[in-house]
Amino acid sequence: MPQSAEKILDHAPLFREPEYRQMLAEKKLNFECPHPDQIVTDQREFTKTWEYREMNLAREALVVNPAKACQPLGAVFAAAGFERTMSFVHGSQGCVAYYRSHLSRHFKEPASAVSSSMTEDAAVFGGLKNMVDGLANTYQLYDPKMIAVSTTCMAEVIGDDLHSFIENAKDENSVPRDFDVPFAHTPAFVGSHVDGYDVMVKGILEHFWKGQERTEAGGTINIIPGFDGFCVGNNRELKRLLDLMSLSYTFIQDASDQFDTPSDGEYRMYDGGTKIEDVKKALNAEATLSLQYYNTRKTLDYCREVGQATASFHYPLGVQATDELLMKVSAISGNEIPETIRLERGRLVDAMADSQSWLHGKKYAIYGDPDFVYAMARFVMETGGEPTHCLATNGTSAWQAEMKELLASSPFGKDAQVWPGKDLWAMRSLLFTEPVDLLIGNSYGKYLERDTGTPLIRLMFPIFDRHHHHRFALMGYQGGLRVLTTILDKIFDKLDRETSETGVTDYSYDLTR
Amino acid sequence: MSLEYENDGTLHAKLIEEVLSQYPDKAAKRRKKHLSVAKSGDEAGEEGEVVSECDVKSNIKSIPGVMTIRGCAYAGSKGVVWGPIKDMVHISHGPVGCGQYSWSQRRNYYVGTTGIDTFGTMQFTSDFQEKDIVFGGDKKLEQIIDEIEGLFPLNNGMSVQSECPIGLIGDDTEAVSRNKAKEHGKTIVPVRCEGFRGVSQSLGHHIANDAIRDWVFEKKDVEFEAGPYDVNVIGDYNIGGDAWASRILLEEIGLRVVGNWSGDATLAEIERAPKAKLNLIHCYRSMNYICRHMDEKYGVAWMEYNFFGPSQIEASLRKIARHFGPEIEEKTEKVIAKYRPLVDAVVAKYRPRLEGNTVMLYVGGLRPRHVITAYEDLGMVIVGTGYEFAHNDDYQRTGHYVRNGTLIYDDVTGYELEKFIEGVRPNLVGSGIKEKYPVQKMGIPFRQMHSWDYSGPYHGYDGFAIFARDVDLAINNPVWGLYDAPWKKSPSRGRAMAAE
């Protein structure tokens, strides 16, 4: 009997005990009708070949293990970055359960959102009644300052019109006439979560800015961070830098406090976020900067329409990308970049110089959202690494062109390949046929690590199987240090593992590296 | 080891009144039917005494805008019933999200070479685009099935799990499945589990069960020599290895588990099920439909059982053994005796650390009643419980488990659950990922009771030991005592005990 009260074995060791191993072997043999082992082995080996890769990359319809989510997730994340705002997703209720679970599993935090709970009858007659009742219930139960409405694909397919539904609901006194109910249509069959983020932020800005007079306040800047699983660390770090520059700025959408509430006995359904008054005032800013271009294409168009200057970045991470952000901020505001920041920059460069021999020539596969992949490829090249495979399931042809331009700008990018629209099963073939030293992505990459042996570094949403990484910044010079250290740890841990066999490889088990 | 206690029904009735007062009138009227306090019921017969009545309405539509915790039919079919069948490819048919959010989240353990002969922890999606909505997705589905055949030739079948748009745009997934199954000589099962169908996951279970009946049973000649002690385990999804910790006991008492539905299952195990002598059903809610069908059509009897905690395990083993007669009964007594020292040691170790602690539960369609005795075996007290998607027959069964005065909440809303927990302040809450962090912020220990909080198994004797350990480590961790800054005066919470 393997179990005892003294030493309780849970699943990982328990099922390796002889009783269970025998039981499972017999189950397979007698009841599962499995394929013969040789056939399984042959197929496994075949999936490692160039021939399989060609079939795999030639897929036109099937998507396997994609690295993207659907629009409403982005909208729910976006809404979480505004003061006392409840997400109200119009359509089937299961979707909302999924967004909440997904966000909670990553942030290890509460994630609130409500659904209009449409069912068959709403599919036939439309969901107006659900909107009218739903807004009234949400308003009364959860005491929000704003309700941000987005849609599931069900509501989109039947063609519910949010604008008129919300007007109807206000006519029926579901919420007071002057209560803020911005909205965005977020069909799951268009784009991905980064687009849902875009249209929700745009919807909120339009709600507050439309018809308002703009009086430009020179030198003031709006910052839109984009969908970012590391918003907790990143937004706080960026604010620190901008404060050091004495900048007058507003974060438009900031979920850093919402997804990092303290444990002190009180559950805060709402915390932090951009104040509604600040959203209104942000119309007057001289410029709006987007930290993630592919998350804000429509929003930036709108900002230009109202007369603001705009600029966009690709997840400012590493040395040059941070330089560019700060110089842009300095150029708009007229404020100089202080010496303390120059010293910080020097410290990051110093660290990179100290470790360069371990990083030079290392090959990487990078996947994730388009702006993140751009940023990581750029930083990897700054360290002398080669971004061999750059993959974004939600990457467009415009992203591909930008990536190619970036890679062409450095000798370290000359062998790099860009894979827009491909998924992680395609990545599996790439890793088998053109192996790399390190894989950068999110928790889903662990299956690639298992199958191909490529060490995985988790730097991208979602991270389910490691805790608290998102609490630390990746952006800015400080963030660069964090990314650098994370990559180095992975390299050293692997080297130690490979050189730790006593009397065989441990001559290289060096104390100092 | 049964406990005698009564809960504070007056407090619970007051809490219900308070939450209802916060709703708009129309919503309050609807929610009122879902909340109650268990009352002493009539003594009942052999199935155990009915200790209370849980008089709530259930399995009706959630109210819009109240933050229901429920999911959808797709979650019930792909997530629960079909997803764990390991040697089939399950296509999430529609936009990318549903498959993405449910990818690898149910912890249905299995053994196999993933991507080669098993496909459990993978996300196959047709990733619908606008043109698929406009022009229909049937052609795309045909191509997907062909591509799966090319890239994953060792799959033993496929299922097509419809997401919301499929039913709305009028695709004919049945015709595609029928044609492609013929062409490839494979089982291909269309499941109409669009998320807008029904009121919760529950209809998805039913639709998934019906799909097995209509698209799997009697479709192939099943070569299988049936034996006298053949049983199927139905409704065990092998979360954290639950089905394995159960199987080992059933084999020890002399039974032959010829199919496990659907944790760690292969299609072959589903196909041969009608040849077994008895269906043992754990999750009644999600799979009673197919058990009734097998009973009516093939004469396979079915029996509910409960492998949570030693009291229920013993009672269930004996009940199962009775069905097979003296030989099995004798072995069963030996098995119970064999595990008794383990049970005694676990209870001796943990009961003093947990005695009298109060628990509130809110889970799916089975565990809100099934796990109750396991807590009581550790000396703990259940003060409130409720289901996401139970039906009336589940609440009737709950009466066998809960005590007078227990707070009962059906399809609870985020607001209600928060207020109930605040008002009751139990020592432990057992619910899901969406509930975990709000509860912990309040300083109340929490265990996820869907995923076993990444632990498990909890079924069987081996599982009970893990369950006891996990409950102890949740309640007796020192972190609960650190919530208040010492320069801010407030009553202290928590009472840590070092692990033994």
TrEMBL record, chain A:
<dbReference type="InterPro" id="IPR024564">
    <property type="entry name" value="Nase_Mo-Fe_CF_bsu_N"/>
</dbReference>
<keyword id="KW-0547">Nucleotide-binding</keyword>
<keyword id="KW-0560">Oxidoreductase</keyword>
<dbReference type="GO" id="GO:0051536">
    <property type="term" value="F:iron-sulfur cluster binding"/>
</dbReference>
<dbReference type="InterPro" id="IPR005976">
    <property type="entry name" value="Nase_Mo-Fe_CF_bsu"/>
</dbReference>
<dbReference type="Pfam" id="PF00148">
    <property type="entry name" value="Oxidored_nitro"/>
</dbReference>
<dbReference type="InterPro" id="IPR000510">
    <property type="entry name" value="Nase/OxRdtase_comp1"/>
</dbReference>
<dbReference type="InterPro" id="IPR050152">
    <property type="entry name" value="ChlB/BchB/BchZ"/>
</dbReference>
<dbReference type="Pfam" id="PF11844">
    <property type="entry name" value="DUF3364"/>
</dbReference>
<dbReference type="GO" id="GO:0005524">
    <property type="term" value="F:ATP binding"/>
</dbReference>
<keyword id="KW-0535">Nitrogen fixation</keyword>
<dbReference type="InterPro" id="IPR000318">
    <property type="entry name" value="Nase_comp1_CS"/>
</dbReference>
<comment type="subunit">
    <text>Tetramer of two alpha and two beta chains. Forms complex with the iron protein (nitrogenase component 2).</text>
</comment>
<keyword id="KW-0411">Iron-sulfur</keyword>
<keyword id="KW-0479">Metal-binding</keyword>
<protein>
    <recommendedName>
        <fullName>Nitrogenase molybdenum-iron protein beta chain</fullName>
        <ecNumber>1.18.6.1</ecNumber>
    </recommendedName>
</protein>
<keyword id="KW-0408">Iron</keyword>
<dbReference type="GO" id="GO:0016612">
    <property type="term" value="C:molybdenum-iron nitrogenase complex"/>
</dbReference>
<dbReference type="GO" id="GO:0016163">
    <property type="term" value="F:nitrogenase activity"/>
</dbReference>
<keyword id="KW-0067">ATP-binding</keyword>
<feature type="domain" description="Nitrogenase molybdenum-iron protein beta chain N-terminal">
    <location>
        <begin position="1"/>
        <end position="56"/>
    </location>
</feature>
<comment type="function">
    <text>This molybdenum-iron protein is part of the nitrogenase complex that catalyzes the key enzymatic reactions in nitrogen fixation.</text>
</comment>
From TrEMBL, chain B:
<keyword id="KW-0479">Metal-binding</keyword>
<comment type="similarity">
    <text>Belongs to the NifD/NifK/NifE/NifN family.</text>
</comment>
<keyword id="KW-0411">Iron-sulfur</keyword>
<dbReference type="InterPro" id="IPR005972">
    <property type="entry name" value="Nase_Mo-Fe_asu"/>
</dbReference>
<keyword id="KW-0560">Oxidoreductase</keyword>
<keyword id="KW-0067">ATP-binding</keyword>
<keyword id="KW-0535">Nitrogen fixation</keyword>
<feature type="domain" description="Nitrogenase/oxidoreductase component 1">
    <location>
        <begin position="72"/>
        <end position="473"/>
    </location>
</feature>
<comment type="function">
    <text>This molybdenum-iron protein is part of the nitrogenase complex that catalyzes the key enzymatic reactions in nitrogen fixation.</text>
</comment>
<dbReference type="GO" id="GO:0016163">
    <property type="term" value="F:nitrogenase activity"/>
</dbReference>
<keyword id="KW-0500">Molybdenum</keyword>
<keyword id="KW-0547">Nucleotide-binding</keyword>
<dbReference type="InterPro" id="IPR000510">
    <property type="entry name" value="Nase/OxRdtase_comp1"/>
</dbReference>
<dbReference type="GO" id="GO:0051536">
    <property type="term" value="F:iron-sulfur cluster binding"/>
</dbReference>
<dbReference type="GO" id="GO:0046872">
    <property type="term" value="F:metal ion binding"/>
</dbReference>
<protein>
    <recommendedName>
        <fullName>Nitrogenase protein alpha chain</fullName>
        <ecNumber>1.18.6.1</ecNumber>
    </recommendedName>
</protein>
<dbReference type="GO" id="GO:0016612">
    <property type="term" value="C:molybdenum-iron nitrogenase complex"/>
</dbReference>
<comment type="subunit">
    <text>Tetramer of two alpha and two beta chains. Forms complex with the iron protein (nitrogenase component 2).</text>
</comment>
<dbReference type="InterPro" id="IPR000318">
    <property type="entry name" value="Nase_comp1_CS"/>
</dbReference>
<keyword id="KW-0408">Iron</keyword>
<dbReference type="GO" id="GO:0005524">
    <property type="term" value="F:ATP binding"/>
</dbReference>
<dbReference type="InterPro" id="IPR010143">
    <property type="entry name" value="Nase_comp1_asu"/>
</dbReference>
